[in-house]
Amino acid sequence: MIKLSEIYEAILLAIEALNSNKIRSLLASLGVVIGISIVIIMGWLINNMDRALTDTFNIIGEDMFFVDKYEWSGGGNWEKMRNRKDIKYEQTIELKEKVKSAEVIIPNLNKWGSTMTYNGENYNGISLVGTTFENAKTPAGSIELGRYYNEMEDEYGSNVIVIGNAVVKNVFKGQNPLGQFVKLNGHKLQVIGVVVKRGTVMMSFIDNQCFIPVKTFRKIFGNNFRSISAAVKAGGKANMDKVRDEVQGAMRTIRNNQPGKEDDFSINETKTFEDSVKQIKAVVYSVGIGMTMLSFLVGIIGIMNIMFVSVVERTREIGIRKAVGAKNSTILMQFIIESSILCLIGAILSIILCSLLVYGSVQVILSFNPDLTFLTPILPYELLVIATIVSIFVGILAGLMPAIRAAKLNPVDALRYE
């Protein structure tokens, strides 16, 4: 059984051997530095991608889904979806009457790329949503400033508007917009509220959305808008399956979908996007693992060669140690520890370099775009632990064959070696 004193002595000998060949040891570690750096950077990127996706999913809401003509994640046959009949406003009202398990069902009449006029200047790229006062109960209607329009304003089609966060910045230049008037298609509307900032790097356009009562929307645009969608709030994540099934059944009836035929509408929720994201992650992981394995292969070969050279150079030393009673296991352990320390040095260098790179990069990126808050300037500690463990494993793997060769040396032949 190997004693702690033997391990301690092996570590000291390994450090002494590496210290006597600093340049060679550093060059041998470069392959490991590259491999570990790829592991750390890939892990950091995936971690930040997860944060960005989580922020994006939170926009929709964990108990929200949308009935629409199209599948938002881009799946399915686009040509087939385009040929579906539009969802009508009356169908969303009928859906609301039929489904009693949902907290709210809200029609959304969408008009993309509209022009808003304020103080005689036109601002393009505004997304308008005609919806009911109940939209205030959903994440899309969360108010930061002012208020949402009420049931009476909704019922009578008042000329009021609730604007997105980006509209305050772009149209009102950051000034308080409450009480101000804007024009849409020649109609004058008063700003009564501002919704909270919801946009992410993947859905920044969401902050350009503005909400007006359905009757006001139809008064301004008539039927000049794309297919309507229905926003459904289930009233809790646990209620999602029940409400989804009921909505699907009701919509099939409303749309006269025959038994055995597929739906001619799509139900969009975070789960749909998560399935698509898994495929993207699989590709990212595959590329990352391939690059990492290639780097580690180069690193292992490099360190293995260095360790073989070290065994040859210290053949006489090994013979002397064996002659005074050193066991094969002790020699084996010495060279494996030396190889592991070599790789551990590579990991430490990787952690330092990657930490500096990540911190500097994030500071520069945020100086250009402060909205990319999902980027973390500090490496997660889990990645550092993984990097350390992987480096030690690579060291054991790289040093195993040279260590076995050293352990099997005949002491008599080793003492004769010049």
What does this structure look like?
The chain has 418 residues and is α+β, with helices and mostly antiparallel strands. It folds into 2 domains: 4-57 and 274-416, no CATH class; 64-269, no CATH class. It has helices spanning 4-19, 22-60, 78-82, 89-98, 151-155, 165-170, 214-221, 240-254, 270-313, 315-323, 328-368, 381-407, 411-416, and strands at 64-68, 104-118, 121-131, 143-146, 160-163, 181-184, 187-195, 209-213, 229-233, 266-268. Strands 1, 2, 3, 4, 5, 6, 7, 8, 9 and 10 form a 10-stranded mixed sheet that branches. Helix 2 runs antiparallel to helix 9. 33% of the residues are buried.
The value of Rg in angstroms is 33 Å
**How would a crystallographer describe the biggest sheet?**
10 strands, mixed
The total of helices stands at 13
- SS-based structural class? alpha+beta
Low-pLDDT windows of residues: none
Our measurement of the CA-to-CA distance between the termini, rounded to an integer number of angstroms, reads 32 Å
Query: Averaging pLDDT over every residue, what do you get?
Result: 82
Strand % is: 15-25%
Count of discrete structural domains: 2
Secondary structure: helix percent:
55-70%
Backbone shape: elongated
Oligomer: single chain
**Order of H and E elements:** HHEHHEEEHEHEEEHEHEHHHHH
Tell me how many strands there are. 10
